[in-house]
Write a structure and sequence with these properties.
The complex is a heterodimer of chains A (352) and B (356). Chain A has 352 residues and is an all-alpha fold. Helices cover 78% and strands 1% of the residues of chain A. Chain A starts with a helix and ends with a helix. Chain B is 47% helix and 18% strand. In chain B, strand 9 and strand 10 form a beta hairpin. The chains are: A mainly alpha (352), B alpha/beta (356).
C-alpha cells in the first residue's frame, strides 16, 4: 500500500520534472538560493560582487531571449541590440531623476513603448533587406545610438554616464535600506527572468513561433501557407526590441549606472555570441550562453589574482570557447547536451 | 519569389478593399464555428453528463450567434461581388483571361487564356522554359501579373479576381500549391509541417499565446486532431514526429500533398509532382492524386513533365510554348496535335524536304 503510494508520488514528481518549465524554475530557485545563502551567511559567500554578476547575467539573458526570436525563429541577424538596451536604460534614468512623481511601472511602459516605436521603424526598413545587409544596416543604427548617447548631454549626461541614486520601488516607495532594496530587487529580477523564460517558451511553441520558423526555412512555402512575411518579420523585430528595452530598464534599475561605452557594437556582438553558444532557440541554453559570455569574469575569474592581473586572458578564453562551440557544436550547448543524453541512452541500452 | 513585401497598391475600382475585409471576417467566423464544433465533439467523450448539458447549451448559443453574424457578412459579400461583376460560367473553377507576365524584355507568359473546370484534373504542359511555373506564380500571386485577369470560383460560388489579393491571402480562398523543389520546413516535425498549413485556422492572439491560455490549448488540441486525420489519410502517421529532413523524396511530396489537404484546399496546384520520383513512387502518387480528387471533391491543376502521368490523370490539358497557348484538349487530342509534337520534338525534316 505504502509502496503504491510512493510510486504514484514519484510518478508525479517525474512528470513535473519533465514539464518544460522545470528547468526554468530550477534556475530561478538556484539564483534565489544564492541570495538567501548570502543573507544567511551575512555576506560571507556569495559576495555581493558575485551576486551582481549573476544579476547582470539575468539582464543580458532577458535581452538574449528577445534576440532568440530574431535569430533563432525568424532567422534575421541584427547588430542593433545595444542601442535598444541603452535606450531603455537612459529613459529610465532620465525619468526617475527628472520626474520623481511618475510611478516606476509608467516609466517601464514608456521605455517599452519608445523601444517598440523605434523597433517598428527599423522593422519596416528591414523588410526590404536580408542577411548580411540587414546586419550592416543595424550596425549603422547601433553606431547612431552610440553617438546619441555620447553627445545628447541633456538626456544621457554624455560620457560621464547617467546614474540613479535609489533602487526604484523598494527604496523609493517601500523605504527599504539600500542593502535590503538591492536584495529585494535581485529577487524581483529572478522572478522577471524566469517569467519571461516561460512566456518566451510558450510563444515559441505556439503557431507564432512555428510561423516564424517556416519563414526562416522557406519564405515561399510560408507565404503559400498564408503567413504574411511583413507581419511576422515586424513581430520578430518588435519582440526583440521590447525585450531589449526591458533589459535596459532592468540594467538601470539594478546596476543604477550606465555609460555610453556600455552600448557599443561589442555589446550587440556579445548578445549574438551568447545566443549562438546557447543554441539559438533554447532558453536555458541562452541563459548559460550569457553566463559564459558575461558572467564568468565578474563571478569567478575576478577573484583569481592571475586573471585580475592579465584581463586579456579572459577575453581570449571566451573567444576560444565561442570558436570551439561554433566549430563542433553549431547547434550550441543544446546540441552538446542532446549528444551526451543520446550516448547515455545508448550505453544504457547496451548494459540492459 | 520570397520578397518580403509587395506594397503595390491595389487598383480598387469596385470595392475590392471592402471585399478583402469581408473575406477576412468571414474566414475568422467560419474558423471559429468549425473550432467550436470540433472542440465540442472532443469534449463529448470526456465531460460528465451534467456538465456536458451546460456546455452543449453554451456551445449552441455561441455557434448560433456566430452563424447569424456569418450570414450577414456573406450577404454583404455577395452583394459586393455582384457589383464587381466578375463573370464565370457555373462549371469553371479557374479562368486565366489574357494573362501576361513580362520580366524586363522577356514575355514569360504572353496573352494566355484557358479554363479549368470544376472538379477536374487539369494539366499544363510545355517544354522547359515555356512559362509553366510562372503561370503558377501568377495564380498564387507570388508574381503580380503584368496584365490580364485570373478569375476564380470559391467553394461557396463567389467569383473573385485573384489579382486583388496578396500572396498570403490566396490560401484562405482555398487555393493551395506545392513546389517544384519541395519546400518543407526542415526544423519542424512532419506533424508541425501540417500545422503550418493550418496557420490561418489559429485565432488566439499573441498575448493569449504567450500565457498559453485555455483557448490556445484547446485550439492546439483541435487542430492537432485535424492534422492527425490528414496524416492518417496520407499514410504518414508512423513518422509524424520525425523531421522531414532525410526522408525519401516520395515522402516529402506526400507531406506537401498532406499540407494542401490540411489547409482545406478547393483548388490544388501541383508543380511537377512526379519530379525526382522513381517509377514505383510515381505510380503511388498517381493513385494518391486521384484518390484525393475523389475523396475531397477538389479541382487539381498540375504542371508535369512525366507524360505518362499527365496523360493518365488529366481530364484536359493545355500545352504552352514560350508563354503562348499551343493547344487545349483531352489527352488524346493533345497527343495527336501536330503543333504540340513540333514544339516537343522539333520540325520533321523529311516532311519539310518532301514538301519542297
Amino acid at each position: 500500500m505504502q509502496n503504491a503510494h510512493d510510486s504514484q508520488a514519484s510518478g508525479r514528481l517525474k512528470s513535473a520534472l519533465r514539464h518544460p518549465f522545470a528547468g526554468f524554475v530550477l534556475i530561478g530557485v538556484l539564483l534565489i538560493g544564492l541570495q538567501l545563502t548570502a543573507i544567511l551567511t551575512d555576506g560571507a559567500w556569495p559576495k555581493s560582487s558575485m551576486l551582481n554578476g549573476f544579476a547582470s547575467v539575468m539582464i543580458y539573458a532577458i535581452v538574449g531571449y528577445g534576440f532568440t526570436f530574431l535569430l533563432g525563429y525568424a532567422g534575421l541577424a541584427s547588430l542593433g541590440t545595444a542601442g535598444f538596451v541603452g535606450l531603455g536604460a537612459y529613459i529610465t534614468a532620465y525619468a526617475l531623476k527628472n520626474m520623481p512623481g511618475v510611478p516606476y511601472v509608467v516609466v517601464l511602459l514608456a521605455a517599452l513603448l519608445v523601444s517598440l516605436a523605434l523597433g517598428a521603424i527599423v522593422g519596416f526598413i528591414s523588410l526590404r533587406i536580408e542577411g548580411i545587409f540587414l546586419a550592416i544596416v543595424t550596425l549603422g543604427l547601433s553606431e547612431i545610438f552610440y553617438q546619441l548617447f555620447n553627445n545628447w548631454l541633456d538626456f544621457t549626461n554624455g560620457p560621464n554616464g547617467a546614474s540613479i541614486s535609489k533602487y526604484p520601488i523598494f527604496q523609493t516607495l517601500l523605504g527599504m535600506s539600500r542593502q535590503d532594496a538591492q536584495k529585494a530587487f535581485y529577487i524581483l529580477l529572478v522572478i522577471i527572468t524566469v517569467g519571461l523564460m516561460m512566456l518566451t517558451y510558450n510563444l515559441g511553441k505556439s503557431s507564432t513561433g512555428r510561423a516564424m520558423l517556416a519563414m526562416k526555412n522557406s519564405s515561399s512555402a510560408a507565404q503559400a501557407m498564408g503567413i504574411s512575411l511583413l507581419k511576422y518579420r515586424l513581430l520578430a523585430f518588435l519582440l526583440s526590441t521590447a525585450y531589449a528595452g526591458l533589459g535596459g530598464v532592468m540594467f538601470m534599475s539594478y546596476l543604477r549606472f550606465s555609460a555610453p561605452q556600455n552600448y557599443t557594437i561589442m555589446f550587440s556582438l556579445n548578445i549574438l555570441a551568447a545566443v549562438l553558444i546557447g543554441g539559438s532557440r533554447n532558453l536555458i541554453g541562452t541563459f548559460l550562453g550569457s553566463f559564459i559570455v558575461f558572467g564568468i569574469t565578474p563571478i569567478f575569474l575576478q577573484d583569481i589574482p592571475f586573471f585580475r592581473e592579465n584581463p586579456w586572458v579572459i577575453n581570449v578564453t571566451i573567444g576560444l570557447i565561442i570558436i570551439l562551440v561554433v566549430m563542433f557544436y553549431p547547434g550550441g550547448l543544446t546540441q552538446l547536451v542532446n549528444n551526451v543524453k543520446a550516448s547515455f541512452k545508448k550505453a544504457d541500452r547496451r548494459l540492459s | 519569389m520570397g520578397k518580403a513585401t509587395d506594397t503595390r497598391s491595389f487598383n480598387d475600382p469596385k470595392g475590392a478593399r471592402l471585399r478583402r475585409k469581408l473575406y477576412r471576417q468571414i474566414e475568422r467566423l467560419e474558423n471559429d464555428i468549425r473550432f467550436q464544433d470540433e472542440l465540442m465533439a472532443l469534449e463529448r467523450g470526456r465531460l460528465a453528463p451534467e456538465r456536458l448539458q451546460a456546455a452543449e447549451e453554451r456551445h449552441k448559443a455561441h455557434v448560433a450567434r456566430k452563424a447569424e453574424e456569418l450570414k450577414q457578412k456573406k450577404a454583404a459579400l455577395m452583394d459586393s461581388e455582384r457589383q464587381a461583376q466578375h463573370q464565370l460560367p457555373e462549371d469553371v473553377c479557374l479562368r486565366l483571361d489574357d494573362l501576361s507576365m513580362v520580366f524586363g524584355g522577356l514575355r514569360a507568359v504572353d496573352g494566355l487564356s484557358f479554363d479549368v473546370k470544376q472538379g477536374e484534373i487539369f494539366g499544363l504542359i510545355g517544354p522547359n522554359g515555356a512559362g509553366k511555373t510562372t503561370v503558377f506564380n501568377c495564380i498564387t500571386q507570388f508574381y503580380k501579373p503584368t496584365s490580364g485577369n485570373i478569375l476564380y470560383r470559391t467553394r461557396e460560388g463567389n467569383v473573385l479576381n485573384l489579382n486583388n489579393y496578396e500572396v498570403h491571402d490566396i490560401i484562405s480562398k482555398g487555393i493551395v500549391r506545392t513546389f517544384q523543389n519541395v519546400e518543407v520546413i526542415g526544423e519542424l516535425s512532419i506533424l508541425e509541417n501540417l500545422l503550418i498549413a493550418a496557420h490561418r485556422q489559429y485565432q488566439a492572439s499573441l498575448f493569449q499565446q504567450m500565457f498559453n491560455t485555455r483557448r490556445v490549448r484547446q485550439e492546439e488540441k483541435v487542430i492537432r486532431a485535424r492534422a492527425m486525420k490528414v496524416l492518417d489519410y496520407c499514410g504518414l502517421t508512423a513518422i509524424k514526429d520525425l523531421p522531414p529532413v532525410g526522408q525519401p523524396y516520395g515522402i516529402l511530396k506526400r507531406i506537401e500533398l498532406a499540407r494542401t489537404l490540411m489547409a482545406g484546399a478547393n483548388l490544388i496546384i501541383l508543380d511537377e509532382p512526379a519530379a525526382g520520383l522513381n517509377d514505383q513512387e510515381t505510380v503511388e502518387l498517381t493513385h494518391m492524386i486521384r484518390r484525393i480528387q475523389q475523396d475531397y471533391q477538389v479541382t487539381i491543376f498540375l504542371v508535369e513533365h512525366n507524360m505518362g502521368l499527365v496523360m493518365d490523370l488529366c481530364d484536359h490539358i493545355c500545352a504552352i510554348s514560350f508563354g503562348k497557348k499551343l493547344a487545349y484538349g483531352t489527352p488524346a487530342e493533345i497527343q495527336n496535335n501536330p503543333t504540340v509534337q513540333e514544339a516537343y520534338l522539333g520540325t520533321n525534316d523529311t516532311d519539310a524536304m518532301e514538301a519542297q
